[in-house]
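Box 3.1 — From sequence to structure: Purine operon repressor
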Amino acid sequence: MKKLKRSARLVEMTQYLLARPHTLISLTAFADRYQSAKSSISEDLAIIKEVFEGEGLGELNTLAGAAGGVKYIPKTDKTAALRTMHGICRQLEQPERVLAGGYLYMTDMIGQPALMGEVGRIFASAFAGKDIDVIMTVETKGIPLAYATATYLNLPVVIVRRDNKVTEGSAVSINYVSGSTKRIQTMSLARRALKDRSRVLIIDDFMKAGGTVQGMVDLLSEFNATVAGVGVFVESGEVGTEERLLEDYISLAKLTNVDLKTKQTTVVPGNYFQP
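Predicted structure (token representation):
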């Protein structure tokens, strides 16, 4: 790269860091990239760090030593995240979203990259301190959420299928009981998709009783994998605690009331925002 003026270098460095979250970048790499002294790079990074943290864009962590450098950690403070979720809750309360069985139509919202980017950043903030190797979701509506989260955590995504695909080779399949319908269903994961003993973050779009998430947890045991966390976009409050198959999870929104006759719903921020 040609030598840049400081103003241009600051812009390019910022973009470089934003595109590589959770990646340790050495001062030497920056110095070589911009043909600048390490002292100048350090001053630039101090400016970027101040802006990132002042504007709530995340943290720029510095690691000292010969193998050190800087690492950008995307984060959204809870005040900003709560503001975002209040807006999403209002959208979810629209009467035309109510479906049979107390579910909500969310496909249009999940299909908005900018909105899912905000949700993914919130999930990334919630699980930033966890030791995670991969993000898992089940097809299909959970996929945009998983990829949005993976973008900010800089992690790969594995997708659990409802049936085995020939193009994915041999797979592990299990039967699980849907927590809401009590029906026996099947899910499968290609053997090559997940390394043995991986630490996995599960992301799902909607949870009623938790049968699907519990199925993924059971499937992970076949790979000797560990569940590092569970993130749910919307949970249903219509299920009693004694019916919930899962206890340890983070939700961003909670559907607390559904009137199928009047199409009136109440959606509030989830347990992530509780004291």
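Summary of the box: DSSP finds eight helices and twelve strands in the chain.
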